[in-house]
Amino acid sequence: MKNLKNGIVFVNPYNPDPPPNYFGPPYGISLIAACMISAGIKIPITAYDFDLQERDFMLHSVERILRKEEPVYLAIVTQSCTRGGVYELIDLARRIKPDVTIILGGPFATCEYDFLLKNFKVDYVVVGDGEETMVELMNNLIEGLEPLGVNGVAFMRKGKVHFSGERKKLLNLDSLPYPAFHLFKGFEKRINSGRSVNLMSNFILGRRCTTLKNALLMLSSRGCIYSCNFCPMSKIDKHKVRFHSPKYFVDMVAYFYHRYGIRDFAFGDNFFTLSKRRVMEICKLILKKRLRIKWSCMTRSDSVDKEMLKTMSRAGCFEVSYGVESGSEQVQNRIGKKLDLLRTREAFKQTREAGIRSILMLMVGNTGESESTIRQTFCYVKGLNPDSVLVKRVKVYPGTLIHDLYEKKGLLKKNYYKESEFTPPSFTCEHSEEELDRLSSMLGERRIFIQVNNTCNNNCYPCRLTRNVYNKQIEAIKESIVLASSRCEDIILYGGEVFLRKDIFKILEFAERIQVHHLSIYGNGRIFSYSGFTDRIKKYQCLEAFIIPFFGLAQMHDDEVRVRGAFDQTMQGIKNLTTASRSFKVKAVIYITALNCAMLGELVKRLVDSRIKSFHFVFLRDSMGLISIPINRLPLISDAAAVLKRMAKYLQGEGCEFSFEGFTPCLLRGHVQHMSEFHFPFNERITYSKGLEVCEDVRLKNKIKAEGCRNCKENSICEGIWKSYLNKYGKSEFVLIE
Ligand code: SF4
Ligand code: SF4
Description:
Elements: E1 8-12, H1 27-38, E2 45-49, H2 55-69, E3 73-77, H3 83-96, E4 101-105, H4 107-111, H5 113-119, E5 124-126, H6 131-142, E6 153-157, E7 160-163, H7 187-192, H8 200-205, E8 216-218, E9 221-222, H9 233-236, E10 242-243, H10 246-260, E11 264-267, H11 276-288, E12 294-299, H12 306-314, E13 317-325, H13 329-335, H14 341-353, E14 357-364, H15 371-381, E15 388-393, H16 401-408, H17 433-440, E16 447-451, H18 474-487, E17 490-494, H19 504-513, E18 518-522, H20 533-537, E19 543-550, H21 555-561, H22 566-579, E20 585-591, H23 600-609, E21 614-618, H24 637-653, E22 657-661, E23 684-686, E24 692-694, H25 695-700, E25 703-704, E26 721-722, H26 723-729
Parallel strand pairs: 1-2, 1-3, 3-4, 4-5, 8-11, 11-12, 12-13, 13-14, 14-15, 16-17, 16-23, 17-18, 18-19, 19-20, 20-21, 21-22
Antiparallel strand pairs: 5-6, 6-7, 9-10, 23-24, 25-26
Helix pairs in contact: 1-6, 2-3, 10-11, 11-12
Bound molecules: iron/sulfur cluster (2 copies).
The site of one iron/sulfur cluster has 15 residues, from loops.
């Protein structure tokens, strides 16, 4: 028998791409550890979660643990995104304590046990659910027995992989103890701290899948009855769902509520509302037990109804994530999701009416995806009005149906899983990586423009700033930032020159403190010509980019902004911003006028030479509604479009990104993919005088369709023509697309 004084150490390795939320210690390990304790396995158990830590910290800590605790067993959770850390831990353990028994488990280990055993010095891999398997395996190992008869375990024998056979699924989930989260020291403090992660760089990288920063993950069921081809659920649990009874589940929530003071929960079931009866019962019990909790869940949008959502809301549900993936029936069928898109529309409305936030999750690059299906999705999502939006590129995860396809087509690189690359490959069975980039750029996530100032040190003639002395109170600005950051990851502050606000640094500090992810500032950039000013902003990590308007080159720009030397000062500001010790991205917004149209090439070249890699060209009026070129100072829209088409070629050659606003597809044939109105259906603005408005609605008030547009192929997606332009110049330039 092995030395029982020394026990087992469970490790969840660092995640190179962690979400910026903390959902508590790993559920799986905590449950397995609880099962070992309740089965009476009397060995010391310690557990460490490095999910939100850095690689070096993890390696140093585990080295110390191996030396100090001298464990007999080291059990490591293995996911495809954390496999790099797992490989390093195996090497480390073999160096520091060669005789330690290494056991792997988790989703990646389940799918790739053969590969792991053949390539790494691992003793055992637990395949599938680990609760019963681990208890049996440990009982055998402690007794010094070969675990030959333990189902669900794979290991090497005589140079070959031995898999003892699949374990029958545990059907009675209520027979399980509650997860032993307490093995992770201080977990309740972290959950209740209100902070998300400790690494700024992590949260800048990460994507929020719920607005809850810290919440304890709880599962009321396992599996899903559908078989979406990108989802590991479809293969792992083979359409079977196993449930906890509502009583067991709510008792478990109540236990953590009372014992550890936890108030925020993330119900992490793949399909939480699969059974209405069950959801209603869970809610009833939460209310009966008077648990004052806030919870979020994920589910299919065609499985909820008004009554259910209202009850969920009363029981503390504040947010539901709906994986809609695509607005195209064809894609829905091809991926096996088969979502009822009509009911989905209704679900978003009912969720809002029930007072619950909705998160719309979309994917680009699914099987059957094309430019046309992206457009269908674009048209479909308009009007859903979700509170947050996530658009992700389809990735190939082990254990999915698309993984099989990807492998069969010979696209999975040999030794791919030996590399520690943490992002799974894109699904390139139907489109190249470049084509997927193009398709992805057609469906952007939400951006929110917040007006924070009403004055400027330029005096641009087309500017619509009211320039009154009234400056919005900082508290109101903060409220807008909080609202915006709950709805999107990308916030743009605008309103003349925002740095003229005396309290702008307090605003930036606030944005930093509440962990705004991506912050940009729209302004003329002149202030950054003063050396040292960039030093004042470089500490704000959320501040990433500056958006700077141009009306012409040199003297022409000065004339239009009515400040002598403004162009040179702005260019000096850009130089300082792009060459500072911490540099910022700069995007140029060029407003097209009759004067500058002919010399746009010269202006753009000058800006490219000044390291600007991102351009936005506006005809007549921008999405914020701040700048609107008077109709008598515009060129013909067809002339402007012709210039831009030539410009596109140059910018592509220079590797710049660019977009056009205010045009119509019939004028920009061949370049429609660069029209910003077609890529950002969710953008919103908060002006001084109004609350949240959808940018598209604001634009549409000033646009109209010409007679004949109804027969155009692009009619469903086109916003139409500026009313004032059509009134003055007529419709002759707009030739419908057949
Ligand atoms: S994506 Fe959702 S509906 Fe589809 S198989 Fe996975 S869990 Fe089920
Ligand atoms: S709908 Fe009208 S404005 Fe739009 S692309 Fe077609 S013809 Fe042009």
